[in-house]
From TrEMBL:
SUPFAM superfamilies: DNA breaking-rejoining enzymes (SSF56349). Residues 81-156 form the Core-binding (CB) domain. GO terms for biological process: DNA integration; DNA recombination. It comes from Candidatus Gallilactobacillus intestinavium. Keywords: DNA integration, DNA recombination, DNA-binding. Belongs to the 'phage' integrase family. Residues 177-375 form the Tyr recombinase domain. PANTHER family: PHAGE INTEGRASE-RELATED, PROPHAGE INTEGRASE INTD-RELATED. PROSITE patterns: CB, TYR_RECOMBINASE. This is Site-specific integrase.
Amino acid sequence: MQSTRYHGVYRDKNNAIFYQFNLGKDENGKYPKKKSRVDKNGKLFETEKEAYEEMLRVKQEYKAVAGKATYALTYKVFMEQQFIPMYKGEVEESTFLNRKNTFEKLIKRFGDKKLIDITTKDCETYRTWLLSKSGFSKSYASLIYGTLRRSLSYAVQLDILNKNVSLKTKSIGKSKQQTEIWDKSDFEKVISKMCTKKYYGHLEFVLIWLYYMTGVRVSEGLALTWKDIDFEKGKLKVMHTIQFKKRHDYHIKPYTKTQSGLRTIMLDKDTLSILEQWKIRQAKHCESDLILSYDGQPLHRSTVNRIIKRYARLAGVPEICGKALRHSHVSYLINEFNADVLMVSRRLGHSSPEITLKYYAHLWPRNDEWIVQQMAKNIKVKLSDKPLVDFIGNANVRN
């Protein structure tokens, strides 16, 4: 079968012309194909153009008759029966749960519309609203609109739509706003406001210290157990993440966000000492395998953010989130110890130094000062005593 300049039109091994295309999903949920070498009058195609025009006629006829159920499909039904089940099967449960609100917003906007009735203008109007009147951050607006575009592309993939009209509009770029972090002095201000005399206050201190000094992801830190620490060798294994539905309804997964996230990092002596003291105190109040726990149950990630923001306000430093402590750890390593990218990459559990540079390149010093000092007086300058080239041009600049 040989392709031609017309999509859906082919030539067989005998050079005979025919068309073939997928009719789309029918009322029974099947995907029938249509293939023919003749027009509606039974005449063999003499040109590729004839075959193409006949194929378009048959497509329109099918839409009006056999494909009625498919082409009357609303966006709401398509999302609930096709796109959302597909998406749920492709991603982690935690990712799916985080996207549910996005799906609900799209269904609220386009749910009653038939898929074939969604126009480029509808998409552009929604895009404008997301950017100007929704009140959403640019990053969240980007996520919502990107999901709309992906859902319509999936409808094209299933041959429910012929084209994705949203692709005629511009995508919404993510915000390039730089994440706020704590530098060393900010961190010192925060811990100066903390007190470990009370049990819960002790936990709060350990939590903030652990995240700042290790750079683990929030879900990785909440899943850490005492078995993950080798106090003698000063090592910490990062092998799990935690997924929540409710505080007492959670699942510790035996893997991290990425395969390269499975790692073992070294702990400094101060951190080891702080953890040893916390382990002793925690054991007096509860039986817990989890490090960051006061009652044997894991803390929720919202609790982590609440603790961080509470002490940030007391210390008068930026009110960052748990994820920003990971960024703060990187900044601390680079600015205080000039850590190289390979070491930082391995400590963070990135798949390659390129990933680390993508997010943190701006934190490394440019070292221009050292270079320009070396450049000074490096070139020997000895000019000729007389011109060696005759200038032909404006007389005013010859001399």
